[in-house]
């Protein structure tokens, strides 16, 4: 068993389970997360969307906690619970009054090994997930992002959306789901995190008593399909019914542990405004692209962002074309502003403002025990929880010269994929996505 101490206590149980504990006594609340190192990145062709589907099945119950029981029990105790599937992970959490947190610990220990995957429930959930995909398809930007991502990643499994391809959602079987569960849901492939009002020694003892006897699984398959170097700009044009035209630019970006990640994150903050994992921002009205496109009435909105990821990913820029303007006009304005930044046109004043905004967004996102627990689990998955702990120091350390250099090296047209969404006439002859 190994141990590492700072504000966070880190233990690795004999079965490989990584445990991160952080006491926070400002309120009698605890947030409890279990993150499995499996997401859409770990899916093969023919089983896209399977990680997200397994996440759904984990709420269908076990013999100890039948379906629906925990919904009522956690709500009755004043808690909340949910889950999320991403490219690099699947995570479950409960945030509850401290005195009731043991229910959450028991529930997660139980469903790590005892989820039922009833065949009737699998078929019922197939309908739910297909409907979820169909609901996403009502959005023009879903199609644009899916097609552009597929062009940007030809080999690496970041190629496909988390929800999966419709063809696979129709054909994945109960046995496929259960096999995926048994392959990836084991203590040696999991990170558990508690942040809140507890005693570390007591919490660790309870976690060991619940999880310590769970046998480790075989090491999960490695992801070995690295994306080859891009040999030039790629272009995707999507034509479907919709209300507006959209542009999506995806530039090759480094993995989270790469020294350039924080440099490019500050380029993002200068260009499009500070953003956080999941694409959340704090407003971008002072950003370069907002001034160049929205204030000039070329676009109704612009955005950007990059997520910390295990493997190299994308730095994204988006724009919605204002009615009466053209995709060509907006693309030209985007390119002009990006080229200026890539050419070194970033000032120290801009960088200082970008750092201030990024720090404010980070502070806002980590204010609650739920946010802190998420970030600890999230960063431990691709690196170490210390990545989260040192986030602000990493931002502070970036110099103006490093930001200018990163902009020049990463904002190259040969290393991007351009996606256009072009509204197409619907069956009634109009241009309207409301009937999709």
Q: What is this structure, in a nutshell?
A:
The protein is α+β, with helices and mostly antiparallel strands and 436 residues long.
Summarize this structure as a short list of keywords or feature phrases.
Cytochrome Bc1 Complex, Chain A, domain 1; five-stranded mixed sheet; alpha+beta; 12 strands; 2 domains; 436 residues; globular; 41% helix; 19% strand; disordered C terminus; seven-stranded mixed sheet
What secondary-structure arrangement, pairings included, does this model have?
Layout (H helix, E strand, L loop, with lengths): L1 E4 L3 E4 L5 E6 L5 E8 L13 H8 L11 H8 L3 E6 L4 E8 L3 H11 L7 H18 L3 H13 L13 H6 L2 H11 L5 E7 L3 H12 L22 E7 L5 E8 L7 H12 L15 H7 L4 E7 L7 E9 L5 H16 L5 H18 L3 H14 L2 H5 L1 H7 L2 H11 L5 E8 L13
Parallel strand pairs: 3-7, 8-12
Antiparallel strand pairs: 1-2, 2-3, 4-6, 4-7, 5-6, 9-11, 9-12, 10-11
Helix pairs in contact: 1-7, 9-12, 9-16, 10-11
């Amino acid at each position: 068993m190994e141990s590492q101490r700072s504000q966070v206590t880190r233990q690795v149980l004999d079965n490989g389970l990584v445990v991160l504990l952080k006491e926070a006594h400002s309120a009698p609340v605890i947030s409890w997360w279990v993150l499995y190192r499996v997401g859409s990145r770990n899916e093969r062709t023919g089983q896209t969307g399977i990680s997200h589907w397994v996440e759904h099945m984990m709420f269908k119950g076990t013999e100890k906690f039948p379906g629906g029981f925990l919904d009522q029990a956690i709500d009755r105790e004043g808690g909340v619970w949910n889950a999320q599937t991403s490219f690099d992970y699947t995570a479950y959490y409960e945030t509850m009054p401290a005195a009731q947190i043991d229910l959450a610990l028991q529930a997660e220990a139980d469903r790590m090994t005892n989820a039922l995957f009833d065949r009737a429930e699998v078929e019922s959930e197939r309908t739910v997930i297909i409907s979820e995909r169909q609901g996403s398809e009502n959005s023009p930007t879903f199609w644009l992002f899916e097609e552009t991502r597929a062009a940007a990643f030809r080999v690496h499994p970041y190629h496909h959306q988390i929800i999966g391809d419709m063809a696979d959602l129709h054909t994945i079987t109960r046995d496929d789901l259960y096999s995926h569960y048994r392959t990836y849901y084991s203590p040696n492939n999991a990170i558990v995190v508690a942040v809140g009002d507890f005693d570390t020694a007591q919490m660790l003892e309870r976690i060991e008593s619940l999880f310590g006897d769970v046998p480790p699984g075989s090491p999960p398959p490695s992801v070995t399909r690295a994306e080859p170097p891009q040999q030039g700009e790629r272009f995707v044009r999507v034509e479907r019914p919709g209300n507006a035209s959209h542009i999506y630019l995806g530039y090759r970006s480094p993995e989270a542990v790469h020294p350039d990640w924080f440099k490019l994150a500050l380029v993002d903050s200068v260009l499009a405004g500070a953003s956080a994992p999941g694409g959340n921002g704090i407003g971008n009205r002072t950003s370069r692209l907002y001034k160049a496109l929205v204030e000039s009435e070329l676009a109704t909105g612009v955005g950007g962002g990059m997520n910390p990821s295990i493997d190299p990913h994308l730095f994204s820029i988006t724009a919605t074309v204002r009615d009466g303007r053209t995709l060509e006009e907006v693309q030209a304005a985007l390119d002009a502003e990006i080229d200026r930044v890539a050419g070194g046109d970033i000032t120290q004043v801009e960088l200082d403002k970008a750092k201030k905004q990024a720090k404010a967004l980070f502070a806002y996102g980590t204010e609650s025990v739920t946010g802190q627990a998420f970030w600890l689990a999230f960063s431990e998955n691709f690196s170490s929880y210390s990545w989260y702990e040192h986030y602000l120091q990493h931002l502070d350390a970036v110099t103006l010269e490093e930001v200018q250099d990163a902009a020049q090296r990463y904002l190259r047209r040969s290393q991007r994929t351009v996606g256009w969404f072009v509204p197409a006439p619907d069956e009634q002859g109009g241009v309207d996505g409301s009937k999709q």
